[in-house]
Amino acid sequence: LAAHHNLSAIKLCPQTGRTHQLRVHLRHLHTPIHGDRIYGKSADRLYLHAYRLEITTQPGKRQTFIAPLPGEFTKLFPELDDEPNL
User: Fold this and answer.
1) Mean pLDDT of all residues belonging to the chain
2) Whole-angstrom Cα distance, residue 62 to residue 74?
3) 23 closest CA partner among 37, 5, 9
4) Within 10 Å of residue 23's Cβ, how many Cβ atoms?
5) How buried is residue 25: exposed, middle or buried, by Cβ count under 10 Å (0-12/13-18/19+)?
6) Has residue 85 been placed in a domain?
7) 7 in Cβ contact with 76 (< 8 Å)
8) Which of 30, 60, 75, 82 is deepest in the core (most CB within 10 A)?
9) Would you give the DSSP letter of residue 82?
10) Domain-located, residue 43
C-alpha cells in the first residue's frame, strides 16, 4: 500500500484465526511487524491494525465493522489517510 525508508504498509488477510498468525509469518519472511516486541524490534506501539472485521452474527447474516487507521499510522504513511480500499 505504501513504503517509506525501511517500512512498508501492507494489507494482510488472515485465514485461520491462529494466534500470532500474521506476526509469525512475517517474521519467517524476515519482515516483522514494526513494534513487535516478540518477533521483531520494539517501538512505541505494535503497528498492526484490524481495519475491517467481517463476522457472521446469525445464520446467513454477516456484519462488517470498519475502524479508521490510527493517527500514528497516517503520520508514517500520509497517503493512507484517505485510502478507501484498505
Assistant:
1) 80
2) 29
3) 37
4) 18
5) middle
6) no
7) yes
8) 75
9) T
10) yes
Q: Which helix (H) or strand (E) element contains residue 74? A: helix 71-76
Is residue 86 one of the residues assigned to a domain? no
* CA-closest candidate to residue 70, choices 55, 80, 60: 80
Q: For residues 15 and 31, give the distance between their C-alpha atoms in angstroms, rounded to a whole number.
A: 19
Q: Which domain holds residue 14?
A: 2-80
Decide: 23 and 38 in contact? Cβ < 8 Å: yes
Q: Give the global pTM.
A: 0.67
> Which of 3, 40, 6 is closest to 24 using CA atoms?
40
Domain count for the chain: 1
Residue 65 lies in a domain: yes
